């Protein structure tokens, strides 16, 4: 096998577990639910043969293979074929994927190394009924909205640093936490932001350190884009990635 650090790859964002990596080892990859596909996505929102990924020289293309529901790249529905760029966000059915190129910088996604992630195993995905369901416009909007919040939702600290919770738990607190918080009685993890399969949720984890959203004290509350929140003496804002920070 070639050096995996210099191969094209796809990051799969896995709910309630660590993300996984699919290595693109051939110039043509079939994507779909069927057993004949090298990149299997076992869910009824995905057609048996859904899409094809082609490497042509230095370029990588993704094309529809006659699927029922199509796919999106960076939120835009693709009718036929699109050239992929590093860090493109791909939505196929209910799956959120990220295309990573074959350069050293593509071994990092949002500041995190992907070199130590487990290789993708389709058996970790819950398999539904065998027949593909046809997504209505409402289904498409719901999935696109959920993917947008999952992929784009971020926490901005007052010092301007961005944190991306995605489907992981983002912890706030002392040195044991991911995001540092100032204030009296800050010991260990005092609050978390986590994904409930629909939205990001802010939850207080301490009796002694106050957590507030828009000046209102909370124990647990769904975050909305634009919400300002404070934990102890530290201030944050929840935004979608394309928005300008207000601090």
Characterization of this structure:
The protein is mainly β and 247 residues long. It folds into two domains: 9-124, Tumour Suppressor Smad4 (Sandwich), CATH 2.60.200; 145-240, Tumour Suppressor Smad4. The protein has one helix and 25 strands. The chain has one helix spanning 137-152, and strands at residues 9-12, 20-23, 28-32, 39-40, 51-56, 59-64, 71-73, 76-78, 81-83, 89-92, 95-100, 108-109, 112-113, 118-119, 153-157, 162-163, 170-173, 179-180, 189-195, 200-204, 211-213, 216-217, 220-222, 228-231, 234-240. β5 and β6 form a beta hairpin. The chain is elongated and about 55 Å long. It starts with 8 loop residues before the first strand and ends in a 7-residue tail after the last strand. Mean pLDDT is 86; it is low at 243-247.
Q: Could you give the distance between the termini?
A: 48 Å
Placed side by side, the strands forming the largest sheet appear as: 8-7-10-11-1-2-14
Q: Tell me the fraction of residues in β-strands, as a range.
A: 35-45%
Oligomer: single chain
- The CATH topology label of the largest domain is Tumour Suppressor Smad4
The top level CATH class name of the largest domain: Mainly Beta
What is the correct CATH architecture of the largest domain? Answer: Sandwich
Structure classification: mainly beta
Order of helices and strands: EEEEEEEEEEEEEEHEEEEEEEEEEE
Detail the poorly predicted runs. Answer: 243-247
Our count of helices gives 1
The number of domains is 2
The major pleated sheet works out as:
7 strands, mixed
If you average the pLDDT, what whole number results?
86
Based on DSSP secondary structure assignment, what is the total number of beta strands? 25
């Amino acid at each position: 096998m070639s050096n995996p650090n210099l191969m094209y790859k796809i990051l799969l964002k896995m709910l309630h577990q660590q993300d996984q990596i699919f290595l693109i080892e051939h110039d043509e990859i079939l994507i779909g639910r069927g057993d004949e596909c090298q990149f299997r996505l076992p869910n009824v929102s995905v057609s048996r043969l859904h899409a094809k990924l082609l490497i042509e020289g230095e370029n990588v293309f993704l094309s529809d293979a006659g699927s029922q529901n199509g796919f999106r790249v960076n939120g835009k529905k693709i009718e036929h074929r699109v050239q992929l760029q590093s860090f493109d966000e791909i939505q196929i059915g209910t799956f959120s994927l990220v295309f990573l190129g074959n350069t050293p910088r593509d071994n990092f996604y949002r500041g995190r190394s992907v070199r130590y992630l487990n290789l993708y195993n389709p058996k970790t995905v819950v398999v539904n009924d065998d027949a593909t369901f046809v997504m209505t416009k409402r289904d498409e909007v719901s999935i696109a909205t959920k993917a947008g919040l999952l992929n784009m939702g971020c926490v901005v600290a007052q010092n301007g640093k961005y944190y991306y919770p995605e489907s992981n738990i983002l912890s706030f607190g002392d040195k044991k936490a991911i995001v540092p918080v100032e204030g009296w009685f800050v010991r260990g993890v005092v609050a978390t932001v986590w994904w409930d399969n629909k939205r990001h949720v802010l939850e207080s984890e301490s009796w002694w350190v106050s957590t507030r959203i828009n000046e209102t004290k909370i124990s647990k509350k769904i975050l909305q884009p634009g919400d300002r929140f404070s934990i102890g003496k530290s201030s944050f804002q929840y935004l979608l990635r394309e928005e300008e920070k207000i601090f």
